[in-house]
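Quick one, probably user error.
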């Protein structure tokens, strides 16, 4: 993949999408998100760290940065002219833009996942899930693209349009250029990233975590879904879990905004994503705020987690509101 006069790894996101013959309107959505992230990264670096005085659908206090990031993205999506429906983790309902249009795209996004970590200067991210047509309430396997932007020491954009996973990095001119093409995951790994309080794990999860520890896995958990998944994906090894807990049968993470896009990316890299009893991408969503337990990463480790959970006597969690 290269433009005349440029090496493969100087190619920018827009040119890459042109050369891979992506649909023009899909390219528009992706590039508008990439542009939005330039403003978001700037707000993270310099913006107000206070609370906005409002709460989101999950009853969580919204930070000024959450609200600002949401506005930046919403405005970009609105002006793109190619959006049918929009759903943000920060708002309580689907925002119709051209809600019947089959030719346009619908987007579910988490504008600033892990925003409470900005306070302590840890990495955060934007997560994006894209469908063709107006329907956002469909299984994640129907996504046409998924991406995240990681605001860490460097800003990177990791994208799949169903043709593998590619990483672009923001350069000094704030352009995204290709830094890794066709990221692949190994079949098993020695990193585990366990969310939720361990004393609330069910026996199957506890036994799986012990299995990982016994095989010498290292614990890597930052509390930010984007950096934690990025570590596993870019190193090509490991598993992230935010399981069903004894007091939270649906876990914590949101299907539309967090799990579906990450599951799409990880599967595209040769990994797997499961609730412990079902493939994440096969879940039929019932509400936009559905949550589900998740085991995501190397396919053999995910299969091992499923095996431990099958032996659990207690009934497994259903997908639903947390
Ligand atoms: P916030 O956006 O409320 O900070 O939550 C972040 C998050 O949704 C996800 O990014 C993390 O993986 C997960 O929650 C961390 O949850 P715990 O704080 O329970 O570990």
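Nope, works fine. Designed sequence:
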């Amino acid at each position: 993949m290269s433009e005349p006069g440029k090496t493969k790894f100087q190619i920018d996101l827009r040119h890459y999408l042109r050369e891979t013959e992506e649909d023009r309107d899909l390219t528009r959505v992706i590039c508008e998100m990439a542009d939005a992230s330039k403003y978001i990264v700037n707000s993270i670096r310099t913006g107000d760290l206070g609370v906005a005085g409002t709460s989101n659908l999950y009853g969580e206090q919204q930070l000024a940065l959450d609200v600002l990031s949401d506005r930046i993205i919403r405005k970009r999506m609105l002006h793109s002219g190619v959006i049918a429906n929009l759903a943000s983790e920060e708002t309580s309902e689907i925002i119709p833009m051209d809600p019947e249009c089959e030719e346009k795209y619908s987007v579910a996004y988490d504008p600033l996942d892990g925003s409470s970590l900005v306070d302590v200067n840890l990495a955060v991210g934007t997560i994006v899930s894209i469908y063709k047509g107006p329907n956002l309430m469909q299984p994640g396997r129907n996504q046409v693209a998924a991406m995240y932007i990681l605001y860490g020491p460097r800003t990177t954009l990791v994208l799949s349009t169903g043709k593998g996973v590619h990483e672009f990095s923001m350069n000094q001119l704030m352009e995204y250029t290709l830094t890794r093409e066709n990221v692949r995951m190994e079949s098993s790994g020695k990193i585990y990233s366990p969310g939720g309080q361990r004393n609330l794990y069910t026996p199957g999860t506890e036994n799986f975590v012990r299995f990982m520890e016994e095989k010498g896995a290292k614990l890597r958990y930052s509390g930010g879904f984007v950096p934690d998944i990025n570590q596993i994906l870019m190193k090509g090894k490991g598993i992230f879990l935010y399981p069903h807990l004894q007091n939270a049968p649906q876990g914590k993470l949101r299907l539309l905004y967090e799990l579906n896009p990450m599951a799409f990316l990880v599967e595209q890299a040769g990994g797997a994503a499961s609730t412990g009893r079902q493939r994440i991408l096969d879940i039929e969503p019932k509400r936009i705020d559905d949550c589900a337990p998740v085991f995501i990463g190397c396919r053999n480790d995910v299969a091992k987690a499923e095996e431990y959970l099958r032996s659990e006597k207690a009934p497994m969690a259903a997908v639903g509101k947390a």
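The CA atoms of residues 88 and 109 lie 5 Å apart.
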